[in-house]
Specification:
This protein has 593 residues and is of the alpha+beta class. Helix content is 43%, strand content 12%.
C-alpha cells in the first residue's frame, strides 16, 4: 500500500521537518530581545539572482483553505503577524474589506499566541512576544516593501521562536484539533494497523510546483473526497480511508521530501516520477536509465544476470529488497496517481537488463554497442530540424510510456512504431536513438521470431532487412564515386524505398553501374570492396524484391540500412587504424620486419 511505504520511508529519510512543520522561506524577521530594546523588523529576502542566500526554516504548517483561514503558530504571513492588509503597498492603499480581514487574522493569531503563553507558562519568551505583538510594532521605513503575503518569523535573543519544544507540542495539538475526524475515541488506522486519532483530512498537501503541470500549479492533496458523489456510500473526507494523524503526517513529509530531492525524483514533463528502495542499494540502479553514458560494466552485469538463473540454494541467500516507483500527475488541486509499482529489486534488475538488451545498438562510429538514456529515446520521437530534435514535438506522455516499458518489461505503446516511421520519412533522420527505438518495438512484439540483432546480421535472409542493407551499399557506392554530391539517393528516394523497395532498388542498382565504372577507374580498392558487398547483399535474396513493406517490415528495412552503414564505418575505421599502425617506424630495440 502506498501510504504504508511512504510512512516506512519517513523513518529512513534524513532531514525531515518536525511533525506538522514544513520548510519555508523566511522573508522578514521580527527581532525581539529580553533586554527591553525596541523590536526590529529586518528584511531577509534575497536578491533576485541570489536565491541560494534565502533563509529557509522548518516552521509550523498545515493546509488551510477558504476565506476565513486560521493562523499558524508563531510563523505566518505579515497579514497575521503584523496586521498588514493586502494592498498596503499600492498607491491607492488597501481596501476597507482588506483592512477588516487583516484585523481579523491578526486577532486570531494573537489568540493562538496567547494560548501558547498560557500553556507554556515556564517559557519566558511566550509572554514577552505576546506583549510585543499585542502592543504592536510601529510601522517605519523598515516596513518598506513589506507585503501581506510575506512570511514573518520571530527571533528572540538570536534564537528562533518556532524551534521551542513548547511551540512544537502545542502546534501538533492544534493540527490534530483542526484535522481530526472528531470521533472522540481512537480507532484502527489503515496504514499502521494500530489504534490512533484518525484524521478528517490530510494535514499537509503536496507543495505547489512539486508536480509539473501543463496548467496552473496548486497545492494538491494525495487523498481528497469532498463530494458525496465521489465517496463510497456517499462518505466524504477520509471516512473510507482511516489514517491516523501520525501516519498521515509522516507519509506526506516523506513524499514532499522526495519530491524535492534529485536522488528520488524525475520530472516527466506532465508529471513526476519518484523511486526508492526498502533498503539502501550500493549501486545507482535507476540512474542507469537516465545517464547520458550508462556505465557499460553495470549494464553488462544486468544483462548477464538476466540470463543467469541461480540455483535454489543461492537464491535463498539473496537478501530480499523491494523497489518502489510512484508516478504522479496533477488535476487542479488533486493528485493523480498514474502508477504505483512495488516489486522486488531482483525483478526490476531483470527488467532493466531486458530494457538495455532490447534497445542496444552497435555504433560503428564508436565501435561499441550503445545504450541510450531514456530521455534521449523520448526526444528522438519528435521532429528533427536538421540540427537537433525540436523540443516539445515528441508525443505527449511518451517518456512516461517508455519508462513503464522499461520497469514492467512490456511492449512500448502501439503508436510508437508507425509514428517513428512517419518521422523518419518526413525529416530523413536515421540515427542511433531512432534505430534503438525500432529494435525495442520489434524485440517486444508478439512475433517471437522477429528479434533483430544489435549489429549487422550477415546471415539474415529477411527481404526487408536485405533491402535496407542494399540501399545502404548503393548509397555508399554513390558517395565514394561522387564525394561532392549535393543530394544523395537517400535524400531523394529513402522514403519511397522503405515502403515500396522493388522499383526503387532495381533502378538504383542499374544506375550504380556508372558509379562502379568510375570507381574501377579512379579508386580500385573501393571498387573491389563495394562491388563485392553489393553482390553479396543482392545474392542473399531468395525471391523477388518485395513490392510493398508493412510497418514492421519498414522497421526492419531501416534497421538493416543503419546497421550496414555502421558496419561499413567500423570496417573503414579498422582499416585506417591498421594502416596507421603499419606506418609507425620500429623502435631501435626491435628488428625490422
Amino acid at each position: 500500500m502506498l501510504l504504508q511505504r511512504l510512512t516506512e520511508q519517513a523513518g529512513r529519510l534524513e532531514g525531515l521537518p518536525p511533525e506538522f512543520y514544513r520548510y519555508r522561506q523566511i522573508d522578514w524577521v521580527l527581532m525581539v530581545t529580553t533586554g527591553g530594546a525596541a523590536p526590529k523588523l529586518v528584511d531577509r529576502r534575497p536578491p533576485a539572482k541570489a536565491r541560494a542566500d534565502a533563509v529557509v526554516e522548518a516552521v509550523p504548517y498545515v493546509q488551510r483553505s477558504g476565506t476565513k483561514v486560521p493562523p499558524f503558530l508563531v510563523v505566518d504571513t505579515a497579514e497575521f503577524v503584523l496586521g498588514r492588509p493586502r494592498g498596503a503597498t499600492d498607491e491607492q492603499g488597501p481596501a476597507e474589506k482588506d483592512v477588516a480581514e487583516a484585523a481579523r487574522r491578526r486577532g486570531e493569531y494573537l489568540a493562538l499566541l496567547r494560548r501558547w503563553a498560557v500553556e507554556a507558562s515556564d517559557e519566558p519568551s511566550a509572554a514577552l512576544v505576546l506583549d510585543v505583538l499585542t502592543r504592536g510594532v510601529p510601522a517605519d521605513k523598515s516596513w518598506e516593501g513589506l507585503e501581506a503575503r510575506h512570511t514573518v518569523a520571530v527571533l528572540v535573543d538570536g534564537r528562533w521562536l518556532h524551534e521551542r519544544a513548547s511551540v512544537r507540542e502545542l502546534w501538533a495539538r492544534v493540527v490534530r484539533e483542526r484535522k481530526g475526524a472528531g470521533g472522540g475515541q481512537q480507532e484502527l488506522c489503515l496504514v499502521c494497523g494500530e489504534p490512533g486519532d484518525l484524521l478528517s483530512t490530510i494535514p499537509e498537501p503536496i507543495k505547489k510546483g512539486a508536480i509539473p503541470s501543463a496548467g496552473g500549479s496548486n497545492e494538491a492533496q494525495l487523498i481528497s473526497v469532498n463530494s458525496p458523489a465521489q465517496g463510497r456510500g456517499a462518505a466524504v473526507k477520509l471516512v473510507n480511508t482511516p489514517v491516523c494523524d501520525r501516519c498521515g503526517g509522516r507519509a506526506m513529509a516523506a513524499l514532499n521530501n522526495m519530491l524535492a530531492s534529485d536522488d528520488h525524483r524525475r520530472s516527466l514533463g506532465d508529471g513526476v516520477l519518484l523511486w526508492w528502495t526498502r533498503e539502501p542499494l550500493d549501486e545507482a540502479l535507476f540512474d542507469l536509465v537516465y545517464d547520458n553514458y550508462p556505465d557499460s560494466q553495470a549494464v553488462a552485469h544486468l544483462i548477464d544476470s538476466l540470463h543467469h538463473r541461480p540455483d535454489p540454494a543461492a537464491a535463498d541467500r539473496i537478501e530480499p529488497n523491494d523497489f518502489y516507483a510512484l508516478t504522479l500527475g496533477l488535476n487542479n488541486a488533486r493528485t493523480v496517481v498514474r502508477e504505483w509499482l512495488d516489486i522486488p529489486v531482483r525483478t526490476v534488475k531483470a527488467n532493466l537488463g531486458a530494457w538495455f538488451e532490447d534497445h542496444g545498438v552497435f555504433d560503428g562510429w564508436r565501435g561499441t554497442t550503445r545504450y541510450l538514456p531514456l530521455w534521449l529515446l523520448a526526444l528522438a520521437t519528435g521532429r528533427h530540424n536538421g540540427t537537433q530534435y525540436a523540443k516539445g514535438t515528441a508525443p505527449r506522455g511518451i517518456e512516461r510510456e517508455l519508462l513503464r516499458t522499461a520497469l514492467h518489461r512490456t511492449p512500448p505503446p502501439a503508436y510508437l512504431l508507425p509514428h517513428l516511421l512517419q518521422r523518419i520519412r518526413a525529416d530523413h533522420r536515421i540515427d542511433v536513438p531512432r534505430t534503438a527505438l525500432l529494435r525495442l518495438a520489434l524485440n517486444r512484439s508478439h512475433d517471437r521470431t522477429d528479434r533483430p540483432m544489435p549489429r549487422l546480421d550477415p546471415d539474415s535472409t529477411d527481404p526487408a532487412y536485405l533491402c535496407g542493407r542494399a540501399f545502404a551499399v548503393l548509397e555508399a557506392i554513390q558517395t565514394a564515386a561522387l564525394p561532392d554530391v549535393k543530394a544523395t539517393i537517400a535524400d531523394k528516394y529513402f522514403g519511397t524505398a522503405m515502403t515500396a523497395p522493388a522499383a526503387v532498388l532495381a533502378n538504383l542498382r542499374h544506375g550504380a553501374n556508372a558509379h562502379l565504372k568510375r570507381l574501377r577507374r579512379d579508386k580500385r580498392g573501393a571498387y573491389l570492396v563495394l562491388n563485392e558487398r553489393l553482390a553479396q547483399v543482392f545474392g542473399a535474396f531468395t525471391d523477388d524484391l518485395p513490392t510493398h513493406l508493412s510497418p514492421r517490415e519498414q522497421a526492419r528495412f531501416v534497421i538493416g540500412y543503419e546497421q550496414q552503414r555502421a558496419a561499413d564505418f567500423a570496417a573503414r575505421a579498422a582499416a585506417k587504424a591498421a594502416k596507421a599502425a603499419e606506418a609507425v617506424p620500429n623502435s631501435p630495440d626491435e628488428p625490422a620486419s
